[in-house]
Design goal:
Elements (H helix, E strand, L loop, with lengths): L15 E2 L12 E4 L10 E2 L4 E8 L5 E10 L2 E4 L22 E4 L4 E13 L9 E6 L8 E6 L4 E2 L14 E5 L11 E4 L4 E7 L4 E7 L6 E9 L11 E8 L2 E6 L6 E3 L3 E3 L5 E7 L9 E9 L2 E3 L8 E4 L6 E10 L4 E7 L10 E10 L11 E9 L4 E10 L8 E2 L3 E6 L6 E10 L7 E8 L15 E6 L4 E8 L22 E9 L17 E3 L10 E8 L10
Parallel strand pairs: 16-25
Antiparallel strand pairs: 1-2, 2-15, 3-6, 4-5, 5-8, 6-7, 7-15, 8-14, 9-13, 9-15, 10-12, 10-14, 11-13, 16-19, 16-20, 17-18, 17-21, 21-24, 22-23, 22-25, 26-27, 27-32, 28-31, 28-33, 29-32, 30-31, 33-34, 35-36, 36-38, 37-38
């Protein structure tokens, strides 16, 4: 029988422990009970009937309950009798950490140990099978005897001492003197819910109590990886999913580059260790950062949320008998580019001066651009180089060393891999050689495919443009009774000026530059209050503003 996962008493607060050495049979299977809590922890039981209900935690999965009764001559609970000729502990079962021996402290009498109502609680349904073990913990000499009782058959563990009555049955006695060869002390087991030992004689005797626990029921784990909707971030992506209880109990499966799902075989084990579920990239071109990961699990058919669901690995507790299935869903992300553009000037510069444009694109998506799924940038220079001479251009990713850029008179292009969050910057410089009445417009496009030709429109968020204009505004001022008869010039004789007071002023304002103007305000240093019909003018558009003053206000010079 495979022992359950018990530890020495005191380690993990378990109440039984195994022998670590010795010649005793089934040494690795018998877990010796720690009886130290009997009688309130007082190790000595005096000459009276003492009864305690006891519950011992034997392992993570098993708990033993019983009523322990001690009657007769005084005795105490110890780890070992320490008698040099004892079989238990000194010879057969050594290194036991628990106090599993009831040892007489007075000679010439009888001490009785009895365990009633023995029950074992464990995982799963039903009552787990177990065997109680009793052992002569000292030696049975001359006028001594030890009698074992149970409500089921006793069987010897290992060799049978020759000083015991046979067949053993449910009741038998071993009497001194002890054998000089072969088994020297009785170690017996019984599938019983009641055991009793009576120690009688002129000397001191002891009895140890143990249990053979049932094997933990086997548990199983299984792992599955699924690409959501069968979609992959990159065409050849492949992942491996695994489930492991230990390095020797690991199962895995790989999706390959075409299958939607991979499922491992079922891994069955008696281990009580937790299971580790892991998903990894199965080839060099696959990056898990291109996916949103979500683990879901069931235990014995019931769903439960695992801790760390969004990570590449999770750890799940597994109890004996559990059937645990965990699935990781990989939802492919999508790369996406944002783009912006600036210029180092706000308007068309003087002839033979330079302008530098800077285009910045960032991967703001949920997946990377990679070798078989590149990012593309294209800059339309046609409305810049028609009035300017191209000088130079550079491109860099995340501020690193310049990378390859393709350039021509009217176009700059770049393509390449771009991780999530990374930035590519194109900077180019031209020398203006026009006559100030032009518009210099640079258009930059960010796409997932190479552009065959530039679109007619620049639409955000896939395009960013910068237009530089030459701003110029002219104002002509006239005075007169009405706009039709108003004149431009200086009044030599204000008193003779068309005989009218007050005097009306008319201001003809024209946008003579290459770009639209806004927030236009017209003022007169003669204090004339001026009203204009609008505040914006398109290129070559004009408007007439008006004002009124008395004859003390002479025509200012045209401005």
């Amino acid at each position: 029988m495979v022992p359950a996962a018990a530890l020495p008493a005191g380690a993990g607060n378990y109440d039984c422990s195994y022998a670590t050495s010795g010649t005793g049979a089934d040494r690795s299977s018998i877990c010796w009970l720690n009886l130290a809590s009997f009688n309130g922890g007082n190790p000595t039981v005096t000459d009276r009937w003492t009864s305690n209900k006891m519950t011992l935690k034997l392992s993570d999965n098993y708990t033993l309950s019983f009523t322990m009764n001690v009657n007769g001559k005084s005795a105490r609970v110890v780890k070992s009798s320490q008698y040099w000729d004892a079989s238990f502990d000194v010879q057969s079962y050594k290194g036991i950490a628990s106090s599993s021996v009831l040892y007489q402290t007075a000679q010439n009498g009888m001490t009785q140990l009895q365990l009633d109502g023995i029950t074992l609680a464990g995982p799963g349904n039903g009552v787990p099978a177990f065997s109680m073990v009793m052992a002569d913990a000292e030696s049975t000499d001359g006028a001594e005897s030890i009698t074992f009782n149970a409500n089921a058959q006793w069987t010897a563990v290992g060799l049978r001492p020759s000083n015991c009555t046979y067949p053993l049955g449910s009741n038998f006695t071993c009497s001194g003197p002890k054998p000089t060869s072969g088994a020297r002390a009785a170690v017996v087991r019984s599938d019983s819910t009641f055991v009793q030992v009576q120690m009688t004689g002129s000397g001191l005797q002891g009895v140890a109590v143990g249990i053979v626990l049932p094997a933990d029921p086997a548990s199983s784990v299984q792992a599955t990886a699924t690409f959501a909707g069968g979609a992959r971030a990159l065409a050849n992506d492949s992942v491996t999913v695994s489930a492991a209880r230990s390095t020797s109990e690991r199962v895995s499966a790989t999706t390959g580059s075409t299958s939607k799902t991979a499922t491992t075989v079922v891994s069955t084990s008696n281990s009580t260790a937790p299971a580790t579920f892991v998903v990894t990239a199965a080839n060099g071109s696959t990056s898990l950062s291109n996916y949103a990961l979500a683990w879901t699990c069931t235990r014995n058919g019931a769903s439960f949320p695992p801790s760390g669901s969004g990570s590449a690995s999770i750890v799940v507790g597994v109890a004996p008998g559990d059937k645990v299935l965990c699935t990781v869903l990989l939802t492919a992300g999508t790369p996406a580019l944002s783009i912006a553009q600036t210029a180092d000037r706000k308007e068309v510069p003087a002839t033979n001066s330079t302008v530098t444009y800077t285009v910045t694109a960032q991967n703001v998506g949920t997946a990377e651009y990679a070798a078989n799924k590149l990012a593309y940038l294209a800059v339309d220079l046609s409305s810049v180089t028609d009035e300017a001479s191209f000088m130079r251009a550079t491109v860099a990713v995340d501020g690193g060393a310049p990378v390859s850029l393709t350039s021509s008179f009217s176009k700059l292009t770049w393509s390449g891999a771009l991780p999530k969050g990374s930035t590519v910057v194109i900077s180019y410089t031209v020398t203006y050689n026009g006559t100030k009445d032009e518009v210099l417009t640079s258009r930059a496009f960010a796409t997932n495919t190479e552009l065959a030709k530039f679109p007619a429109e620049c639409v955000s968020p896939s395009c960013a443009s910068v237009a530089l204009y030459h701003p110029e505004l002219t104002v002509v001022k006239k005075a007169g009774a009405d706009e039709g008869t108003a004149k431009v010039g200086t009044v030599a004789d204000p008193a003779s000026f068309i005989g009218a007071q007050p005097l009306n002023f008319f201001y003809i304002v024209e946008n003579t530059g290459s770009g639209a103007l806004s927030n236009i305000v017209v003022t007169d240093d003669k204090g004339v209050k001026i009203t204009c019909p609008q505040t914006t003018l398109a290129p070559k558009e004009s408007m007439t503003c008006t004002g009124t003053s008395d004859m003390s206000a002479f025509f200012p010079r045209t401005s």
